[in-house]
Design goal:
Blueprint: H1 2-9, H2 13-33, H3 37-57, H4 61-81, H5 83-90, H6 96-99, H7 111-124, E1 128-132, E2 146-151, H8 154-160, E3 171-175, E4 178-184, H9 200-211, E5 215-219, E6 226-230, E7 233-237, H10 240-251, H11 255-287, E8 291-303, E9 309-314, E10 318-326, H12 327-332, E11 339-343, E12 350-355, E13 361-362, E14 368-373, E15 376-396, E16 403-411, E17 414-420, H13 421-425, E18 429-436, E19 444-451, E20 458-459, E21 466-475
Parallel strand pairs: 1-3, 8-11, 15-18
Antiparallel strand pairs: 1-5, 2-4, 3-4, 5-6, 6-7, 8-10, 9-15, 10-14, 11-13, 12-15, 15-17, 16-21, 17-20, 18-19, 19-21
Helix pairs in contact: 2-11, 3-4, 7-8, 7-10
């Protein structure tokens, strides 16, 4: 139980986003390419990839190398051989069809009105061509249509194909309960098995049916027959009830179709779950499979120190940590992502010993602390105090012969210093940085910065950290 909780706590939000995104991409590829030759080729490619992983894990070096080369070559062959099929899937104007849309479910097409209208035109021998789209996009295949967007009715369908209507020779596209376009020009079929009395309407219906999953309804102007075309089928419909069943099957209202929809939903759910499991397995094998060790020197941060205390001395300002994790996480790890903090709130004035444990170390999720080298750190704390110290110039170098500095005036003469009480008790003077006198011939003025020792001392906010030095140079008296 503890290991499971530790594992769950190590999962980063980036890992969740990574698995979710790639699972969705894999699921979308299944939705787009299922039932195609490309999908079957991709399944074969996936099998090769898994076989290569098994061969590598078993230490079969030559087999793994050979399968890896075959997999790379097969991926290139798939792109070349199935480029037309891939292009037909991806070349859509509606990006939703690629990114999130699922196969179309039940439509609200008014079937009885369409059937009654079609057989009414058949009795009058009025030619008609009606398109009921499926899932495929028709915009790149059909041409010259006039947008209509009228509700389907018997009068509207009859009026569209009446011989005096300018658009009666074209096709009408019905989507849902609306006539979307009229006067549409369809691609013609070049089938050789058509009877000679089939005219342009029949060849246009077969042409679009061969290229898409749309259902075509054709009414012959010469014979008054009603025919349907879908895929490679081209059948004559004799009874209205037969056309009703065909339309119900196309839009998803038949009993058979309802069962197919249920099976399809189960299939899509299973595909989504399988995509998630596959990506999770890949993530686990790569991100959690093999631990990688790394050593880093991390600065120690002292936190929660009493403002009235000062750190006088430490045995070490950094600590070496040994960390482990997946190769991908370790390679992306930056030293600033690792923190070592020592809490000074519970320690007293004087010398203190700290033992660095995992509680003091903060690492990113998925990275684990293996070892702390030299885990004991000694810290000397002291009470902060203020003291006025005399300033002394630190002269350096050698004056010219027979020359001396006879008088020195400092501004300021004293400086207030903040530091540990024990240190300040033993200090009476603070020195400047070195002031060189080599070649000094005459009197003058200079400035120098104060040099605090030890470094834990600080200049009080109301004091200056530089001193002005006015000096007098004169010859030695003989």
């Amino acid at each position: 139980m503890r290991n499971a909780l530790l594992f769950l706590s190590s999962i980063r939000w980036q890992d969740i986003a990574d698995v979710a995104l790639n699972s969705y991409i894999l699921f979308r590829l299944y939705v787009l390419f299922r039932g195609t030759n490309t999908f079957r080729a991709l399944v074969g490619l996936a099998v090769l990839w898994f076989f290569q992983g098994i061969a590598a894990s078993l230490g079969l070096i030559i087999t793994s190398w050979a399968v890896q080369g075959i997999t790379a070559l097969a991926a290139l062959i798939i792109i070349v051989v199935f480029r037309n099929e891939i292009r037909s899937v991806l070349q859509v104007k509606n990006m939703g069809a690629i990114l999130w849309e699922l196969p179309r479910s039940v439509s609200k097409t008014p079937i009885e009105i369409i059937v009654e209208s079609v057989f009414g035109l058949s009795q009058r021998k009025v030619g008609a061509l009606i398109v009921l789209p499926g899932n495929d996009d028709l915009s790149d295949i059909v041409h010259s249509g006039i947008p209509w967007q009228g509700l389907v009715s018997k009068e509207m369908i009859t009026g569209i194909f009446w011989e005096d209507n300018p658009v009666h020779d074209g096709a009408a596209i019905i989507q849902g309960n609306q006539v979307a376009e009229v006067g549409v020009i369809l691609p013609l079929s070049h089938r050789k098995d058509f009877p000679s009395y089939y005219g342009t309407r029949h060849r246009a219906a077969a042409g679009l049916a061969e290229k898409t999953d749309a259902l075509m309804i054709v009414v012959s102007e010469e014979r008054g027959t009603v025919s349907i075309a879908k895929g490679n089928r081209f059948d004559i419909i004799h009874q209205p009830r037969d056309l009703v069943e065909e339309l119900k099957d196309h839009v998803g209202l038949s009993t058979k179709q309802e069962g197919w929809i249920r099976r399809e939903r189960l299939e899509l759910g299973a595909a989504a779950l399988l995509s998630f499991l596959m990506v999770t397995g890949i993530w686990f094998s790569y991100a959690r499979g093999v631990d990688t060790l790394i050593s880093l020197d991390i600065p120690i941060e002292f936190v929660n120190r009493d403002p009235n205390t000062d750190i006088v001395e430490t045995s070490s300002n950094s600590v070496r940590l040994e960390l482990s994790g997946s190769g991908a996480l370790i390679r992306s790890l930056r030293p600033d992502q690792v923190k070592v903090r020592l809490d000074l709130s519970k320690y007293s004035i004087g010398n203190n010993r700290f033992t660095i444990t995992s509680e003091n170390v903060s690492v990113p999720p998925g990275v684990f602390l293996k070892n702390v080298k030299t885990p004991v750190v000694e810290v000397t704390l002291d009470t902060l105090a203020r003291k006025d110290l005399h300033i002394q110039v630190d002269w350096a170098g050698k004056l010219p012969d027979q020359t001396i500095i006879s008088e020195v005036k400092l501004d300021p003469e004293k400086v207030q210093v903040i530091g540990g009480q024990r240190i300040l008790e033993n200090l009476t003077t603070v020195y400047t940085e070195r002031v060189w006198v080599d070649g000094l011939q005459k009197s003058g003025t200079t400035t120098a910065k104060l040099a605090l020792n030890p470094a834990s001392l600080k200049i009080a906010p109301n004091s200056r950290d530089r001193v002005t030095i006015e000096y007098t140079v004169q010859k030695k008296q003989q």
